[in-house]
Every structure is written in structure tokens, then in C-alpha cells.
Amino acid sequence: MTSRPTLDVDPFDEAVLAAPLQLHTAIREAGPVVWIPKYGFWATGRDAEVREVFSDWDRFSSASGTGLTNIKTQSAWRKPSAILEVDPPDHTVTRRVLARVLSPSAMRQLRDDFQVEADRLIDELVERGRFDAAQDLSFRFPFTVLPDAVGLQRNGRHHLVPYANLNFNAQGPPNRLVEQATLEAADSLEYVRWQCDRANLIPGRFGAQIYAAADAGEIDEETAALLVRTFLSAGIDTTVYAIGLMLYALITHPDQWARLRVDRALAKKAFEETLRYTPSSPLIGRTTTGATELGGVALGESEKVICFLGAANRDPRKWNRADDFDIGRYTGGQLAFGMGPHFCVGHAIARLEAECLLTAVVERIERIEIAGPPVSLTNNWLRGYTSLPVVVTPS
């Protein structure tokens, strides 16, 4: 065992959040795992160690929360997630329900509807010629198609943005960002509780299918509501920001945009490379269940281990030309969706949304250029753009 390596940094300083690559390199190269004294947690930014953490829930538990707060010993602002913050065997039950709802056959049924909406939206924006690719495109599309698929009422969907912003900020330390997000989400908490109730979901869609599992005795009514909440709190913003990051990467790498224009089948790979290159949700936490070791470093019981996925996805031990954005790259093994028992159950719908939207973009737009200063999101646990002004030339 090696001694406890320490790195005196603040990963949640707002200047660091705005430009995290230097931090990612520092964490990754300081050692296989490194202690962050300001907040009292372990950080790892290496591919091998992140994989080990994700693969072994018995040593690295999700049930104490996937953020900095240990939800078993400290109060949290909401009830724990029934899918993200549980371990087997309970996790096995809830995951089975969501996996059935989000099955490959369900994705095939959604594809046509998603593509029609993507085509309609891009036609509208191309006609305008100049628009905000964050607000008008990467926000608008997922905030339309996923709530429709879940069965959310049209009225009140504006509450989803502040609620999800609080959800992700609260994964980090209780800083200014959490205080601000709490104030902004004050009127949204009751909406989310109301919308997750089965009586307020549109019949026949994902939410109602989850409640059907309660009727069948697989889960109870409260767990069903918590599973519906997963779509509202964790299923939209991650995709919204990932799509925006993808568009920005393609705009700022014109050689890759040109490749995509020539070979439109690369749309899927462009999204996967974006997830590797700049994951929109670049942090995820676990808690040690007992004294253990990681990368030859001794860890104590009930200690937080935060996996820096943005660092691991550029680990040169795993990736050649790790800092290059290359849509032709084989991206199997990128960690943005996690791996192991807690591999993101919603990965297929996120991939479907991105593929449909980018297919519509590349078919209708010859050239896309930045038309004003992009505005980055400042969030403890998310990355992306809140504004991305562009001008486009139609095909």
C-alpha cells in the first residue's frame, strides 16, 4: 500500500468549473486515487480505477449517495433515487422495471416520432438562419420528446429546468451554486411531486408503464413515483447538455463536420465521441463499505470516492490522442454512461435523441458557425452551454 496521496485543489471553485481540463490532468497524474482535503473525499481520474469502482458495488456503494453527501448519515434535500442510489438486490428490481420500459423495441417505436420532431424543428431553425443552438435546439428538442414519451402534462414543464439544476448542483458541496439553485427551484418542487403521481401522467406512456409494475406487485407505489422522478431529475439535462457539447465540438472542429457531411452514418459516432471528449455529467460518486484499497492506496470505511469521468475519458493510458476530437474513433469503453450494475439505464433514449437530431442537422445544414460568445453552464455536477449563438447555411 502507498501513503495517502493528497492534492490541495478545489474542484468546485467556479473558475475551475468553467475550465476543468487542468484539474482533470492534475487529478489523473497525481496518482491512481488522490485525497482532496478541502472536502474530504477521494478523487480518481484514471480509466482503470474508475472501472474498478464501477464494477464492484460491494466495495463501492451507490446506496450512500452518488454525490458528496452521505445520504445514510446526513440529511438530503430529496428522497433517495430508487435506481441511482440503491445497490443490489433492490437495484436489480428497479432496474429490471426501467429496462423493460426502455427496451430496444420501445426505442424502435419512438424513432419515427423523434425523427419527425427533429426534422420539423431543424426546418424551422434553418429558415431563420440565425438562432441559439443551446436554447432553440439542444434544450428544445429533448424537453419536447422525452416528456412526451414519459407522459408528462404540457402545462408546467418549465419547472423541469430549475428542478434538474438543483438536483445536479446539490450533488456537490453546499456552495453559492446550491443556494442559488435552491431559490430558483422553490416553486418547482411541488410540481415535480404532482407530476410524478400516476393520476397526472398521460396513459400508455413510460410513466404509466412504470406504475403498471406497481400494479403487478414488482414495486410499490412510492418506488414507482421515484422512478418516474428519475426521468425528470436525471434524464433530460444530461442529454440537453451533451447535445450542445456535440454541436459545439463539431462547429469548432470543421474537419470533423466535413467528415460527417460526407458520411452521415457517423452521426452515432459523433455523439459517442462527444461523450468521451466532454461528458456532460463528468462526476459520479461512490462510498466505501469498509476499509479497502484502490490502485494500491489504502482507503478507509465510509469514505467518498468521486470518479472524474472527464479525466478518465482522456486517460492516455486508455486512449490514443486522448485530447483530439475524432468522430471516426472507436469509442467502446468510454465511461460517460458508467459501467457495471449501474450502467445508465437511459442510455438508449439519450443516444436516440442525439442521433435523430444530428441526422436532421447534417441533412439540412451545409455550414454552421459561431455567431456570438457561447455561455457555459456553471453547475457543480454538469457541463454544457446555456447559450450558443450560431448562423447556418442551408444545404
Structure summarized in a few sentences:
Strand 1 (34-36) and strand 2 form a beta hairpin. Helices cover 47% and strands 12% of the residues. By secondary structure, the protein is an alpha+beta fold.
Describe this protein with a few key phrases.
alpha+beta; 12 strands; 395 residues
Describe the structure.
The protein is an alpha+beta fold. 47% of the residues lie in helices and 12% in strands. It contains 17 helices and 12 strands. It has helices at residues 14-18, 21-30, 47-55, 90-101, 104-128, 133-139, 142-150, 160-169, 176-184, 189-196, 206-215, 221-234, 237-252, 254-262, 267-277, 309-312, 347-364, and strands at 34-36, 41-44, 60-61, 130-132, 283-288, 292-294, 297-299, 304-308, 365-370, 375-376, 385-387, 389-394. It has a 5-stranded mixed sheet. Strands 4-12-9 form a 3-stranded antiparallel sheet. Strands 6-7 form a two-stranded antiparallel ribbon. Helix 5 runs parallel beside helix 17 (347-364), helix 6 crosses helix 13 (237-252) and helix 11 (206-215) runs antiparallel to helix 12 (221-234). The radius of gyration is 20 Å and the shape is globular.
**Overall pLDDT score:** 96
Helicity, as a percent range: 40-55%
Number of helices: 17
As a percent range, the share of strand residues is 5-15%
Shape, principal axes of CA atoms:
globular
Count all strands and give the number.
12
Radius of gyration computed on alpha carbons: 20 Å
For the terminal residues, how far apart are their CA atoms?
60 Å
Protein structure class? alpha+beta
Secondary-structure element order, as H and E? HHEEHEHHEHHHHHHHHHHEEEEHHEEEE
Taking the sheet with the most strands, its summary is: 5 strands, mixed
Strand arrangement, major sheet:
1-2-8-5-3
| Oligomeric state, counting identical vs distinct chains | single chain
Low-confidence residue ranges: none
